[in-house]
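Z., the sequence and structure:
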Amino acid sequence: MSSIAFVGLGAMGAPMAENLVKKQFRVTGFDMRQEARAALVAAGGHAAASAGEAAQGADALILMVVNAAQARSVLFEAGALAALAPAASVILMATCPPGEVEAIAAEVEKSGRRFVDAPVSGGVNGARNGTLTIMAGASQESFDAGKPMLDAMGDKVFHVGLKPGQGATVKTVNQLLCGVHIAVAAEALSLAQKAGIDGKLLFEIMGGSAASSWMLRDRGPRMLDDEPPVASAVDIFVKDLGIVLDAGRAAKAALPLAATAHQMFLAASGLGHGGRDDSQVVRAYRALNPKAANDA
């Protein structure tokens, strides 16, 4: 039974760690929130008082943190990398810029440990159900070592390339599409409501038409709620679309639709909605079209 240190027991990290426990891995988790650590213990895992303590002698360290800066802090400042077993694997599952992932991987591999760049897609429901899509960039040896753990958390595990950073690149493209799809669904709703069309009827029609997308079917109805449950926050797309635009600059690729979507999420955040569900980017459109129905 492999021992895993899991750092980042948030809305997605907590159920991911619990799925590892269910697959008979020995999981020791750390999160700044005591209640998150207690929930893992209640699910059959173990808790540590620090990231370094969680990683002590572990065969693998899984990082489901917010960004690359937090990953660096856990690995190098909190001492988690040095605390791992000598041939352990570090699996970074957060959405990070590809260049940052490459730099972190180089430092991890210099220590003699393996590194797997494995961002995920599928949201909270995918994390709970073990149905995440996982996009892994790693050497074949590192991927093979990490695959049993990845299989415990996702049912669509893809080895997208042999270098760390390639998983992050695929996730960046994924976030470009997701962010643009949500923003354009909000724009469509804004136009329809400005013309007096019922939003619920609109999404019923569009959801079964050629104009549909998974994001329109999922996020569209939530745009009609004043306070939908937060599956992923507006500020997550402020961050992720920022990563998309940085990647575009690095590749000298023009990304005008991603840039516009980023501005709408940024506007929603600036209006005070950064912590709300990402469907609430629609509030930025309502600010631009104040006579639209269901103003908020």
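The first helix runs from residue 13 to 22. Strands lie at 3-7, 26-30, 46-47, 60-63, 89-92, 114-117, 120-121, 132-137, 154-161.

Let me know what you think.
H.
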